[in-house]
Amino acid sequence: MNVRMTLVAATAVALSAALAGTALAAPGGGGHDATREALRAAVRDGVPGATAAARDAHGGWRATEGVGDLRTGEPRSAADRYRVGSITKTFVATVLLQLEAEDRLSLADTVDTWLPGTVRGNGHDGREVTLRQLLNHTSGIHDYTSDEEFGRTYLLKDGFLAHRYDTLEPAELVAVAMAHAPDFAPGTSWQYSNTNYVLAGMVIEEVTGRPYGAEIRDRILAPLRLRATSVPGTRATLPRPSSRAYSKLAPTATGPTYDVTRLNPSWAYAAGEMVSDSADLNRFYRALLGGELLPPEQLTAMKTTVEVTDAPAFRYGLGLMDRELSCGVHVWGHDGGIHGSLSEAVTTADARHSLALNFNGDWAGDSDAVLEAEFCGG
């Protein structure tokens, strides 16, 4: 079962168009034949191109399939930088846990402690929601990206093409959510909500007095030397090297394909705006699960999971998913989607085997099959 924690889930559906592709493996990359075939299958299913990188006890491996530019036929690159969508959430949760370790906040704090009056209206009450509930999606706060008007204006074709360069403030995103009733009382159930991480980013900024992206840069990117990873803010372009990104901009997998490479990701903010590459994502999750970024107490808290509704193979921690694959292997990480980009990044609990991948189309391909192939042998 594929549970995509995407920002544009309406367009993450199956497709039938097929494209040809070629594979590129790094020297010494044997033993990943099933993974390579799963990438080829994604391209046959309609993904324009795929790029992936893995690291295990035998070293590093990388592969590409398909094209990075439908107009020129230029292939995808193993060094491509791409929008990682909701993988951003793990970075945000890591910063909040670091702040807790420094006694600058507590996950038991309510949202109102740091953002008084922000979560109000239609039954929402920030005095009853904790930071922990934001991070593990048990807050009940409505997801602003599921608002129909927001979807028409910013996610689907006509609205996206007219507003792709608009700048939205975090408070505007929260206001969209506050126009709806809560999904449930805080702490009584689970529901994925991008609003939770918009609020988490706002809390980081309130606590530190700095942009949340600056905290991610100084606390994670610089120490780990993640030079391909960035928090773009309002920047519409992708840093090079990168491929084009494509979408149907529709809730179905039919119709024209649009180049959506350029967009202002402020509408995603701390819920999903970041850019990275496969090597950096592997390095990040290996460092995180390996204890390089958090003290033991905070890492244990991050890995303390709750049940994911209607997905028994998944459990959700604090910005971190625990997924049991068909062979019984557990992998920790996150997936993410944003216009023209679907990504996965996971590692085993011992941080010895990691995989990160990206499809440069948001309507096709089975990334779960790639994970199964890498960790279970197909």
From TrEMBL:
Residues 45-341 form the Beta-lactamase-related domain. It comes from the Bacteria. Pfam families: Beta-lactamase (PF00144). Residues 1-25 form the signal peptide. GO terms for molecular function: hydrolase activity. It is an enzyme of class 3 (hydrolase). Keywords: Hydrolase, Signal. Coiled coil: none annotated. InterPro entries: AmpC-like, Beta-lactam-related, Beta-lactam/transpept-like. Its EC number is 3.-.-.-. The keyword Hydrolase applies. This is Serine hydrolase domain-containing protein. It comes from Streptomyces cinereospinus. The lineage of its organism: Bacteria, Bacillati, Actinomycetota, Actinomycetes, Kitasatosporales.
